[in-house]
Amino acid sequence: MNKYRELFKDIYSENQIEFNANMSEHIYFKVGGPADVLLIPKAKEQIVRTIKVCKENNIPYYVIGNGSNLLVKDGGIRGVVIKLTELNNIDISEGKVIAETGALLKDASKIALEHNMTGLEFACGIPGSIGGAVFMNAGAYNGEIADVIESAEVLTEDGKIINYTKEELNLGYRTSRVMEEKAIVLEAVFALQGGEHEKIKARVDDLTEKRESKQPLEYPSAGSTFKRPEGHFAGKLIQDAGLKGYSIGGAAVSQKHSGFVINKGGATAKDILDLIAHIQSEVKNQFGVELHPEVRIIGEEKN
Ligand SMILES: Cc1cc2nc3c(=O)[nH]c(=O)nc-3n(C[C@H](O)[C@H](O)[C@H](O)COP(=O)(O)OP(=O)(O)OC[C@H]3O[C@@H](n4cnc5c(N)ncnc54)[C@H](O)[C@@H]3O)c2cc1C
Protein backbone atom coordinates (compact mmCIF):
# COMPACT_ATOMS: atom_id res chain seq x y z
CA MET A 1 0.00 0.00 0.00
CA ASN A 2 2.94 2.28 0.70
CA LYS A 3 3.92 1.96 -2.94
CA TYR A 4 0.52 3.34 -3.97
CA ARG A 5 0.56 6.05 -1.32
CA GLU A 6 3.93 7.24 -2.62
CA LEU A 7 2.83 7.16 -6.27
CA PHE A 8 -0.40 9.08 -5.83
CA LYS A 9 0.33 11.42 -2.92
CA ASP A 10 1.12 14.36 -5.22
CA ILE A 11 -2.09 13.90 -7.19
CA TYR A 12 -4.67 13.21 -4.48
CA SER A 13 -5.42 14.46 -1.02
CA GLU A 14 -5.82 11.88 1.75
CA ASN A 15 -9.61 11.88 1.53
CA GLN A 16 -9.52 11.02 -2.17
CA ILE A 17 -7.56 7.78 -1.66
CA GLU A 18 -8.82 4.64 -0.01
CA PHE A 19 -6.69 1.52 0.45
CA ASN A 20 -8.20 -1.94 0.50
CA ALA A 21 -11.49 -0.34 -0.46
CA ASN A 22 -14.60 -2.41 0.04
CA MET A 23 -16.05 -2.47 -3.47
CA SER A 24 -19.43 -3.72 -2.30
CA GLU A 25 -19.98 -0.16 -1.04
CA HIS A 26 -19.40 1.20 -4.52
CA ILE A 27 -21.54 -1.06 -6.69
CA TYR A 28 -25.29 -1.49 -6.79
CA PHE A 29 -25.15 -5.27 -6.37
CA LYS A 30 -23.50 -4.76 -2.95
CA VAL A 31 -21.07 -7.68 -3.38
CA GLY A 32 -17.38 -8.08 -4.16
CA GLY A 33 -13.97 -8.02 -2.53
CA PRO A 34 -11.63 -5.09 -1.95
CA ALA A 35 -9.76 -2.99 -4.49
CA ASP A 36 -6.10 -2.40 -3.64
CA VAL A 37 -6.64 1.33 -4.10
CA LEU A 38 -9.67 3.44 -4.85
CA LEU A 39 -8.99 6.93 -6.19
CA ILE A 40 -11.68 9.58 -6.33
CA PRO A 41 -10.58 12.42 -8.64
CA LYS A 42 -12.36 15.76 -8.61
CA ALA A 43 -10.71 17.14 -11.77
CA LYS A 44 -9.90 15.85 -15.26
CA GLU A 45 -6.26 16.62 -14.75
CA GLN A 46 -6.14 14.10 -11.89
CA ILE A 47 -7.51 11.38 -14.17
CA VAL A 48 -4.90 12.14 -16.83
CA ARG A 49 -2.06 12.08 -14.31
CA THR A 50 -3.36 8.88 -12.70
CA ILE A 51 -3.40 7.00 -16.00
CA LYS A 52 0.12 8.22 -16.74
CA VAL A 53 1.41 6.98 -13.37
CA CYS A 54 -0.38 3.63 -13.79
CA LYS A 55 1.11 3.11 -17.23
CA GLU A 56 4.62 4.12 -16.18
CA ASN A 57 4.47 1.68 -13.27
CA ASN A 58 2.60 -1.14 -14.98
CA ILE A 59 -0.32 -0.89 -12.58
CA PRO A 60 -3.66 -2.16 -13.83
CA TYR A 61 -6.45 0.39 -13.57
CA TYR A 62 -10.20 0.35 -13.99
CA VAL A 63 -12.63 3.27 -14.14
CA ILE A 64 -16.06 3.11 -12.62
CA GLY A 65 -18.98 5.48 -12.58
CA ASN A 66 -21.97 4.90 -10.37
CA GLY A 67 -21.45 1.11 -10.18
CA SER A 68 -24.93 0.29 -11.48
CA ASN A 69 -23.80 -2.12 -14.17
CA LEU A 70 -20.94 -3.83 -12.38
CA LEU A 71 -20.27 -7.11 -10.64
CA VAL A 72 -16.99 -7.22 -8.72
CA LYS A 73 -15.81 -10.74 -7.91
CA ASP A 74 -15.22 -11.82 -4.31
CA GLY A 75 -11.41 -11.70 -4.55
CA GLY A 76 -11.56 -7.97 -5.35
CA ILE A 77 -9.47 -5.93 -7.76
CA ARG A 78 -5.70 -5.81 -7.92
CA GLY A 79 -4.46 -2.38 -8.85
CA VAL A 80 -6.28 0.91 -9.04
CA VAL A 81 -9.96 1.71 -9.31
CA ILE A 82 -10.77 5.26 -10.38
CA LYS A 83 -14.25 6.32 -9.37
CA LEU A 84 -15.46 9.30 -11.39
CA THR A 85 -18.63 10.42 -9.63
CA GLU A 86 -17.05 13.53 -8.10
CA LEU A 87 -16.72 15.09 -11.57
CA ASN A 88 -20.38 15.83 -11.76
CA ASN A 89 -21.04 19.30 -13.10
CA ILE A 90 -23.92 19.82 -15.53
CA ASP A 91 -24.31 23.00 -17.63
CA ILE A 92 -27.03 24.12 -19.99
CA SER A 93 -26.21 26.20 -23.03
CA GLU A 94 -28.19 26.92 -26.20
CA GLY A 95 -30.30 23.79 -26.27
CA LYS A 96 -27.45 21.62 -25.06
CA VAL A 97 -26.80 19.76 -21.86
CA ILE A 98 -23.08 19.56 -21.15
CA ALA A 99 -22.32 17.04 -18.44
CA GLU A 100 -19.13 15.90 -16.77
CA THR A 101 -18.47 12.18 -16.78
CA GLY A 102 -19.54 11.43 -13.21
CA ALA A 103 -22.78 13.39 -13.27
CA LEU A 104 -25.81 11.17 -12.96
CA LEU A 105 -27.88 10.56 -16.04
CA LYS A 106 -30.97 11.02 -13.87
CA ASP A 107 -29.79 14.49 -12.89
CA ALA A 108 -29.13 15.42 -16.52
CA SER A 109 -32.66 14.25 -17.35
CA LYS A 110 -34.07 16.29 -14.45
CA ILE A 111 -32.20 19.44 -15.44
CA ALA A 112 -33.40 19.03 -19.03
CA LEU A 113 -36.98 18.88 -17.71
CA GLU A 114 -36.43 21.98 -15.58
CA HIS A 115 -35.28 23.82 -18.71
CA ASN A 116 -38.15 22.51 -20.86
CA MET A 117 -35.82 20.48 -23.05
CA THR A 118 -36.98 17.19 -24.50
CA GLY A 119 -34.94 14.10 -25.43
CA LEU A 120 -33.58 12.81 -22.13
CA GLU A 121 -36.89 11.58 -20.69
CA PHE A 122 -35.92 7.94 -21.39
CA ALA A 123 -32.96 8.39 -19.03
CA CYS A 124 -34.94 9.53 -15.99
CA GLY A 125 -34.72 6.16 -14.22
CA ILE A 126 -31.34 4.84 -15.38
CA PRO A 127 -29.10 4.97 -12.30
CA GLY A 128 -25.79 5.34 -14.14
CA SER A 129 -23.31 8.15 -14.66
CA ILE A 130 -22.85 10.00 -17.94
CA GLY A 131 -19.56 8.16 -18.60
CA GLY A 132 -21.06 4.74 -17.90
CA ALA A 133 -24.06 5.58 -20.05
CA VAL A 134 -21.96 6.64 -23.03
CA PHE A 135 -19.71 3.58 -22.61
CA MET A 136 -22.76 1.26 -22.64
CA ASN A 137 -24.97 3.39 -24.93
CA ALA A 138 -27.55 3.10 -22.18
CA GLY A 139 -31.15 3.12 -23.23
CA ALA A 140 -34.70 2.44 -22.17
CA TYR A 141 -38.24 2.73 -23.48
CA ASN A 142 -37.27 3.37 -27.11
CA GLY A 143 -34.65 5.96 -26.29
CA GLU A 144 -30.89 5.66 -26.02
CA ILE A 145 -27.81 7.81 -25.65
CA ALA A 146 -27.17 7.56 -29.40
CA ASP A 147 -30.40 9.51 -30.06
CA VAL A 148 -29.35 12.60 -28.17
CA ILE A 149 -25.58 12.75 -27.84
CA GLU A 150 -23.76 15.32 -29.95
CA SER A 151 -20.19 14.57 -28.91
CA ALA A 152 -18.04 13.28 -26.09
CA GLU A 153 -14.64 14.30 -24.83
CA VAL A 154 -12.53 11.25 -24.10
CA LEU A 155 -9.11 10.36 -22.79
CA THR A 156 -7.61 7.81 -25.15
CA GLU A 157 -5.58 4.84 -23.98
CA ASP A 158 -2.40 6.61 -25.03
CA GLY A 159 -3.24 9.64 -22.93
CA LYS A 160 -4.65 12.11 -25.47
CA ILE A 161 -7.79 14.15 -24.84
CA ILE A 162 -9.92 14.23 -27.97
CA ASN A 163 -13.49 14.87 -29.02
CA TYR A 164 -15.55 12.19 -30.71
CA THR A 165 -18.63 13.23 -32.62
CA LYS A 166 -21.74 11.10 -32.28
CA GLU A 167 -20.81 9.26 -35.52
CA GLU A 168 -17.26 8.67 -34.33
CA LEU A 169 -18.56 7.17 -31.07
CA ASN A 170 -19.90 4.10 -32.99
CA LEU A 171 -22.78 3.66 -30.59
CA GLY A 172 -24.56 0.33 -31.02
CA TYR A 173 -26.71 -1.89 -28.81
CA ARG A 174 -24.84 -1.62 -25.50
CA THR A 175 -21.55 -0.97 -27.30
CA SER A 176 -19.40 2.01 -28.20
CA ARG A 177 -16.02 2.98 -29.53
CA VAL A 178 -15.12 3.99 -25.97
CA MET A 179 -15.63 0.35 -24.97
CA GLU A 180 -13.65 -0.97 -27.96
CA GLU A 181 -10.73 1.42 -27.41
CA LYS A 182 -10.61 1.32 -23.61
CA ALA A 183 -10.95 5.09 -23.60
CA ILE A 184 -12.32 7.11 -20.68
CA VAL A 185 -15.26 9.46 -21.16
CA LEU A 186 -14.56 12.86 -19.60
CA GLU A 187 -17.59 14.85 -20.69
CA ALA A 188 -20.58 14.57 -23.01
CA VAL A 189 -22.73 17.07 -24.89
CA PHE A 190 -26.39 16.27 -25.56
CA ALA A 191 -28.36 18.21 -28.18
CA LEU A 192 -31.99 18.48 -27.09
CA GLN A 193 -35.10 20.11 -28.53
CA GLY A 194 -37.28 22.70 -26.84
CA GLY A 195 -40.49 21.19 -25.52
CA GLU A 196 -43.51 21.77 -23.33
CA HIS A 197 -42.85 21.31 -19.65
CA GLU A 198 -46.10 19.48 -18.96
CA LYS A 199 -45.56 16.98 -21.79
CA ILE A 200 -41.99 16.25 -20.77
CA LYS A 201 -43.04 15.82 -17.15
CA ALA A 202 -45.92 13.53 -18.12
CA ARG A 203 -43.51 11.28 -20.05
CA VAL A 204 -41.06 11.20 -17.12
CA ASP A 205 -43.87 10.38 -14.67
CA ASP A 206 -45.18 7.65 -16.97
CA LEU A 207 -41.75 6.01 -17.34
CA THR A 208 -41.09 6.27 -13.60
CA GLU A 209 -44.38 4.57 -12.88
CA LYS A 210 -43.63 1.80 -15.41
CA ARG A 211 -40.20 1.20 -13.90
CA GLU A 212 -41.42 1.18 -10.30
CA SER A 213 -44.25 -1.22 -11.06
CA LYS A 214 -42.22 -3.66 -13.18
CA GLN A 215 -38.68 -3.63 -11.75
CA PRO A 216 -37.45 -4.97 -8.40
CA LEU A 217 -35.98 -1.63 -7.37
CA GLU A 218 -36.20 -2.60 -3.70
CA TYR A 219 -33.34 -5.10 -4.14
CA PRO A 220 -29.69 -4.59 -5.13
CA SER A 221 -29.12 -5.53 -8.78
CA ALA A 222 -27.42 -4.25 -11.91
CA GLY A 223 -30.63 -3.78 -13.87
CA SER A 224 -31.18 -6.21 -16.75
CA THR A 225 -28.61 -8.92 -16.21
CA PHE A 226 -28.48 -10.03 -19.85
CA LYS A 227 -28.48 -8.29 -23.20
CA ARG A 228 -31.56 -8.72 -25.31
CA PRO A 229 -30.96 -11.72 -27.57
CA GLU A 230 -31.94 -11.12 -31.20
CA GLY A 231 -35.65 -11.87 -31.66
CA HIS A 232 -36.31 -12.59 -27.96
CA PHE A 233 -36.62 -10.98 -24.54
CA ALA A 234 -34.23 -12.33 -21.92
CA GLY A 235 -36.78 -12.01 -19.10
CA LYS A 236 -39.40 -14.02 -20.98
CA LEU A 237 -36.95 -16.80 -21.86
CA ILE A 238 -35.83 -17.02 -18.23
CA GLN A 239 -39.42 -17.12 -17.00
CA ASP A 240 -40.42 -19.71 -19.62
CA ALA A 241 -37.45 -21.82 -18.53
CA GLY A 242 -39.12 -22.03 -15.11
CA LEU A 243 -36.50 -19.94 -13.36
CA LYS A 244 -38.61 -17.13 -11.91
CA GLY A 245 -37.62 -16.86 -8.24
CA TYR A 246 -34.89 -19.50 -8.63
CA SER A 247 -32.02 -18.81 -6.25
CA ILE A 248 -28.48 -19.81 -5.47
CA GLY A 249 -27.28 -18.63 -2.05
CA GLY A 250 -28.32 -15.00 -1.72
CA ALA A 251 -28.74 -14.47 -5.46
CA ALA A 252 -32.16 -14.90 -7.04
CA VAL A 253 -34.06 -14.39 -10.26
CA SER A 254 -36.48 -11.60 -9.35
CA GLN A 255 -40.10 -12.63 -8.81
CA LYS A 256 -41.13 -9.26 -10.23
CA HIS A 257 -39.02 -9.28 -13.41
CA SER A 258 -37.18 -12.42 -14.51
CA GLY A 259 -34.65 -10.35 -16.47
CA PHE A 260 -33.18 -9.13 -13.18
CA VAL A 261 -30.84 -11.17 -11.02
CA ILE A 262 -31.06 -9.63 -7.56
CA ASN A 263 -29.16 -9.82 -4.31
CA LYS A 264 -31.99 -10.87 -2.04
CA GLY A 265 -29.70 -10.56 0.99
CA GLY A 266 -26.22 -11.79 1.82
CA ALA A 267 -25.28 -12.83 -1.74
CA THR A 268 -21.66 -13.27 -2.73
CA ALA A 269 -20.43 -12.44 -6.21
CA LYS A 270 -19.98 -16.20 -6.66
CA ASP A 271 -23.68 -16.80 -5.94
CA ILE A 272 -24.57 -14.27 -8.63
CA LEU A 273 -22.07 -15.70 -11.13
CA ASP A 274 -23.25 -19.26 -10.47
CA LEU A 275 -26.85 -18.17 -10.99
CA ILE A 276 -25.94 -16.37 -14.22
CA ALA A 277 -24.21 -19.54 -15.48
CA HIS A 278 -27.20 -21.68 -14.49
CA ILE A 279 -29.63 -19.38 -16.30
CA GLN A 280 -27.43 -19.36 -19.40
CA SER A 281 -27.23 -23.13 -19.49
CA GLU A 282 -30.99 -23.69 -18.88
CA VAL A 283 -32.02 -21.18 -21.53
CA LYS A 284 -29.53 -22.63 -24.01
CA ASN A 285 -30.69 -26.21 -23.31
CA GLN A 286 -34.38 -25.44 -23.44
CA PHE A 287 -34.55 -22.86 -26.24
CA GLY A 288 -31.16 -22.94 -27.98
CA VAL A 289 -30.64 -19.24 -27.24
CA GLU A 290 -27.36 -17.87 -25.87
CA LEU A 291 -27.69 -15.19 -23.22
CA HIS A 292 -24.82 -12.76 -22.82
CA PRO A 293 -24.43 -10.70 -19.64
CA GLU A 294 -25.02 -6.99 -19.97
CA VAL A 295 -23.51 -6.48 -16.53
CA ARG A 296 -19.72 -6.01 -16.61
CA ILE A 297 -17.89 -8.58 -14.51
CA ILE A 298 -14.52 -7.58 -13.08
CA GLY A 299 -11.97 -8.59 -10.46
CA GLU A 300 -10.59 -11.89 -9.23
CA GLU A 301 -12.05 -15.06 -7.77
CA LYS A 302 -11.54 -15.52 -4.05
CA ASN A 303 -8.96 -18.17 -3.21
C1 LIG B 1 -32.19 -0.71 -11.17
C2 LIG B 1 -31.38 -0.55 -12.43
C3 LIG B 1 -32.00 -0.21 -13.61
C4 LIG B 1 -31.27 -0.07 -14.79
N1 LIG B 1 -31.91 0.28 -15.94
C5 LIG B 1 -31.21 0.44 -17.06
C6 LIG B 1 -31.85 0.80 -18.28
O1 LIG B 1 -33.06 1.00 -18.34
N2 LIG B 1 -31.09 0.94 -19.39
C7 LIG B 1 -29.74 0.75 -19.37
O2 LIG B 1 -29.10 0.91 -20.42
N3 LIG B 1 -29.11 0.39 -18.25
C8 LIG B 1 -29.79 0.24 -17.10
N4 LIG B 1 -29.14 -0.11 -15.94
C9 LIG B 1 -27.70 -0.38 -15.98
C10 LIG B 1 -26.81 0.85 -15.72
O3 LIG B 1 -27.49 1.83 -14.96
C11 LIG B 1 -26.30 1.46 -17.02
O4 LIG B 1 -25.58 0.51 -17.78
C12 LIG B 1 -25.40 2.67 -16.75
O5 LIG B 1 -25.12 3.30 -17.97
C13 LIG B 1 -24.09 2.30 -16.07
O6 LIG B 1 -23.46 3.49 -15.65
P1 LIG B 1 -22.53 3.51 -14.35
O7 LIG B 1 -21.99 4.89 -14.19
O8 LIG B 1 -23.26 2.98 -13.18
O9 LIG B 1 -21.40 2.54 -14.81
P2 LIG B 1 -20.57 1.49 -13.92
O10 LIG B 1 -21.48 0.41 -13.47
O11 LIG B 1 -19.80 2.21 -12.89
O12 LIG B 1 -19.60 0.91 -15.04
C14 LIG B 1 -20.12 0.16 -16.11
C15 LIG B 1 -19.06 0.07 -17.21
O13 LIG B 1 -18.83 1.39 -17.72
C16 LIG B 1 -17.44 1.71 -17.66
N5 LIG B 1 -17.35 3.14 -17.39
C17 LIG B 1 -17.95 3.82 -16.39
N6 LIG B 1 -17.64 5.12 -16.48
C18 LIG B 1 -16.82 5.25 -17.55
C19 LIG B 1 -16.16 6.35 -18.15
N7 LIG B 1 -16.26 7.59 -17.68
N8 LIG B 1 -15.39 6.12 -19.26
C20 LIG B 1 -15.26 4.86 -19.74
N9 LIG B 1 -15.85 3.79 -19.20
C21 LIG B 1 -16.63 3.99 -18.12
C22 LIG B 1 -16.89 0.87 -16.52
O14 LIG B 1 -15.51 0.65 -16.70
C23 LIG B 1 -17.71 -0.41 -16.66
O15 LIG B 1 -17.15 -1.28 -17.63
C24 LIG B 1 -29.87 -0.25 -14.75
C25 LIG B 1 -29.23 -0.59 -13.55
C26 LIG B 1 -29.98 -0.73 -12.39
C27 LIG B 1 -29.27 -1.06 -11.11
Task: Give a verbal description of the structure.
This protein has 303 residues and is of the alpha+beta class. Helices cover 30% and strands 24% of the residues. The protein has nine helices and 18 strands. It has a five-stranded antiparallel beta sheet. Strand 15 and strand 16 form a beta hairpin. The longest helix is centred in the last third of the chain and has 19 residues. The radius of gyration is 20 Å and the shape is globular. The relative contact order is 0.14. The mean pLDDT is 97. Bound molecules: flavin-adenine dinucleotide.
Each distinct ligand: flavin-adenine dinucleotide
Q: Distance between termini?
A: 21 Å
What is the spatial order of strands in the main beta sheet? 6-7-13-11-12
Low-confidence stretches: none
Which structural class matches the secondary elements? Answer: alpha+beta
Helix content: 25-40%
Number of strands: 18
Task: Give the overall shape.
Answer: globular
Mean pLDDT: 97
Number of DSSP helical runs: 9
> C-alpha Rg, in Å?
20 Å
Q: H/E series, N to C? A: HEEHEEEEEHEHEEHEEHEEHHEEEHE
Quick recap of the structure?
With 303 residues, the chain is an alpha+beta fold. The chain has nine helices and 18 strands.
Features:
9 helices; 303 residues; five-stranded antiparallel sheet; binds flavin-adenine dinucleotide; four-stranded mixed sheet
Helix and strand topology:
Layout: H1 2-8, E1 17-22, E2 34-39, H2 44-56, E3 61-64, E4 70-72, E5 77-83, E6 90-93, E7 96-100, H3 105-114, E8 117-118, H4 130-136, E9 139-140, E10 143-144, H5 145-148, E11 149-155, E12 161-165, H6 177-181, E13 184-191, E14 193-194, H7 197-214, H8 234-240, E15 247-248, E16 251-253, E17 261-263, H9 269-287, E18 296-298
Parallel strand pairs: 2-5, 3-5, 4-18
Antiparallel strand pairs: 1-2, 6-7, 7-13, 8-14, 9-10, 11-12, 11-13, 15-16, 16-17
The structure holds flavin-adenine dinucleotide (FAD).
Residues 28, 62-70, 84, 101, 126-129, 131-133, 135-136, 138-140, 178, 184-185, 215, 217, 221-223, 296 line the site of flavin-adenine dinucleotide.
